[in-house]
Design brief:
The chain is 29% helix and 13% strand. With 412 residues, it is α+β, with helices and mostly antiparallel strands. The strands form three sheets. Strands 1, 2, 3, 4, 10, 11 and 12 form a seven-stranded antiparallel sheet that branches. Strands 5-7-6 form a three-stranded antiparallel sheet. A hairpin with a 4-residue loop joins strand 11 and strand 12. Helix 2 crosses helix 6. The chain is globular and about 60 Å long. The two termini are 31 Å apart.
Length: 412
């Protein structure tokens, strides 16, 4: 059930530096005009926090206020934050983006995947968006079981020729690659905690620790899949049709186990406890912005190598068969665990160096090295856009006004 509430203006808090008033105004307007329940937005510019806003209700039913340290689950916005762990591993020489995955993880070569490169895997080109064996929630926490299942999966297309959004599986494949390449054999969640979150002081987790109380988490107020039919003017109709068709690759991508394709199920502690690096990252929005702010300014604290930073900035290597995404059923561009700007989803400056990931319902985080911006927004009322949710877009366009850059409007 999508809750609608009136949020008192006194519950909208935080600060915006001089010159960033348009962002604060847009954030306030989201509650007045765009039915926001609870949300936060944070922006770093050239390594300095310039916007830190939060407000509304962390739970719209219980009327529990969203406070400064409220955490929220950000769905696929997790992908970009989690992929920072792979970038750190690349900087340290643990992985090479153009090396074969099987050179680090030999079992991955099974079922015709021996020539898949790390770059292809991280760019959704490996043909592995779905898992064939039926999985239960308990299987997802069994590292060795998941390793065997992932390694045995055959590609749904010839790797490198097409791409399709690896909506849930990307994070597990990243984690297994990292676990085999890391000299200490850490999972992605643990590697991220130790090598990214700790140095940057982030309050963000891939696999939520039990010691974090439920009172700190925002409640997701989401929709049921059938409601997507009522919003075909916002979602690609062919994506909606695929999501609801059990025979389609889109359904299979988000349907094993089915619980992972249902946004309200991410309120469950047992779903958040497991490492799902493509979907269940939970933390403060401020932490997401701080992480992207680090990546937008060459990653000195993390010791990112110049070659890593250049790789993230560089234009994507598209599949040979074109940009049509066989899962999302629309054109997309991916690179190294991130979305890159494309005509229907423009973000960052016109230089095209930006990279980030949006999440189901409207959240988004990105880095723009050209302007030195690290941006993050997340909310608990889920919208129906794959990207460019009107609330997030209003904040991003206000940011362009604040820094004097040209707004990046999508093509019609």
């Amino acid at each position: 059930m999508v809750v609608k509430v009136n949020v008192p203006t006194g519950l909208i808090r935080g600060d915006a530096d001089e010159g960033y008033g348009p962002v604060a105004e847009a954030f306030r307007d989201n509650f007045i005009e765009r039915h926001e329940i609870g949300a936060a937005c944070a922006i770093y510019h050239d390594g300095r926090k310039v916007v830190d806003l939060w407000g509304g209700y962390a739970d719209g039913v219980e009327k529990r206020p969203w406070v400064e340290d409220t955490m929220v689950t950000v769905f696929s916005t997790t992908k970009g934050v989690a992929s920072m762990a792979l970038a750190v591993a690349h900087s340290r020489g643990f992985i090479d983006y153009d090396q074969r995955v099987a050179s680090y993880w030999p079992a991955f070569a099974a079922s015709g995947k021996d020539e898949v490169t790390v770059r292809q895997l991280l760019s959704h080109q490996a043909g592995l968006p779905a898992i064939t064996p039926s999985l239960e929630l308990r299987d997802l926490g069994d590292v060795e079981r998941m390793s065997e299942v992932l390694a045995s999966e055959p590609p749904a297309w010839e790797p490198g020729t097409r791409h399709g959004y690896h909506g849930i599986t990307l994070g597990w494949y990243e984690s297994e690659l990292l676990r085999h390449a890391d000299p200490r054999h850490r999972t992605l969640g643990r590697f991220f905690a130790e090598e990214v979150a700790a140095p940057l002081g982030l309050d963000f987790h891939v696999g939520l620790p039990d010691e974090i109380p439920d009172e700190r988490r925002a409640t997701i107020h989401g929709y049921k899949p059938a409601e997507m039919i009522l919003h075909l003017h916002q979602m690609p109709p062919r994506f909606v049709a695929g999501f609801l068709n059990p025979r389609s690759i889109t359904f299979k991508t988000f349907g094993n186990p089915r619980i992972l394709g249902l946004v309200n199920e991410y309120n469950r502690r047992d779903v958040l406890r497991i490492e799902i690096p493509a979907a269940n990252g939970t933390g403060t929005v401020r932490s997401i912005a701080a992480a992207y702010g680090e990546f937008a300014t060459d990653g000195r604290t993390l010791g990112l190598a110049p070659a890593t930073v250049d790789a993230l900035k560089h234009p994507a290597t598209p599949p040979t068969g074109g940009l049509f995404d066989v899962v999302l059923r629309t054109d997309t561009i991916f690179s190294l665990g991130y979305v890159k700007p494309f005509p229907r989803f423009r973000f960052g400056s016109r230089a095209g160096l930006a990279f980030g990931t949006p999440g189901a319902g409207g959240s988004f985080g990105f880095a723009d090295p050209d302007t030195g911006i690290g941006f993050a927004y997340a909310m608990n009322r889920t919208g129906f856009k794959l990207w460019d949710d009107p609330r997030e877009l209003a904040l991003r366009q206000a940011l362009h006004v604040a820094i004097g850059s040209d707004p990046q409007l999508p093509d019609a």
